[in-house]
Amino acid sequence: MESSVRTTTLPCGEAIPVLGQGTWKMGEDSRRRADEVRALKLGLDLGVTLIDTAEMYADGGAEVVVAEAIAGRRDETFLVSKVLPSNASRAGVRRACENSLKRLRTDRIDLYLLHWPGSVPLTETVEAFEALKQAGKIRHWGVSNFDTDEMQELALLSDGDKVQTNQVLYNLVRRGPEFDLTPWMRKRGIPLMAYSPVEQGALARNARLDAVAARHGATAAQIALAWVMLHDGDIAIPKAGSQEHVRQNFAALDIKLTPQDVADLDRGFPQPTRKRGLEMI
Ligand code: NAP
Fold this sequence. Notes:
Helices cover 37% and strands 14% of the residues. It has 10 helices and 10 strands. It binds NADP nicotinamide-adenine-dinucleotide phosphate (NAP). NADP nicotinamide-adenine-dinucleotide phosphate binds at residues 22-24, 52, 115, 144-145, 167, 195-201, 204, 219, 221, 237-242, 245, 248-249, 281.
């Protein structure tokens, strides 16, 4: 199926969708499993081919759900997974990646992220990522929950410039990254991957979005997503456990926020005026 999903370009030159599918909390309850698989499959049908998961989610259970959803469709999927900082040593990364590949029932991960900064020297993790690339186990690597100073440190390392994304908490009520992290990343052409783009569902119930939503005949959650994807190059990865939410999130791609909408949202959700440490969920 021809995808109508807009794309952004990674530093390596590869285009990936600006809308992906999150999987945190999937694989935790067997009664929800069929719905989760159906939701992810519908996303793929619609062209939302980027799926974000992690070894941490449901202790690997989310990766197993993803495997079921992408069975027979691996080549159309852009698979993102993450290694825990406690596994970020040379041997640990190799082992964690093998385990993720087994659960995902695939031979490669498209983008492998360090889940958050930890105590293993970053240079060792970067070397391990590069070795996995050489071995064909991963195609690209990136980081998650890295603040500006950590991105700067990474950039100074040998092969640090191979980083493809930084996945961070970013949405209307978490605008902190705009102060200096997103400008730093934009300058270097590194797309930001925004996690919890609807603040784990809370923005779907936020009355400050109602007026803009009414103008577009949309829901508050759709406006929250459209706002994240408005920013040049940014990617939103909402988690949807139902087909209805997948459809709504896909439809958010067609919402064109006007300058008036953006001004109203800026009033309701002000931009940061000073540096704050990067928030994490
Ligand atoms: P989120 O995507 O902001 O919110 C998910 C919640 O919103 C779910 O309860 C979902 O309900 C609901 N929802 C989704 N679409 C909706 C819609 N159209 N209308 C109303 N409600 C809607 O939060 P998240 O799961 O924390 O973040 C997204 C993904 O980012 C995660 O799944 C994970 O892959 C990634 N993540 C990464 C990190 C990291 O440290 N790197 C941290 C957190 C998350 P249903 O499930 O009922 O559809």
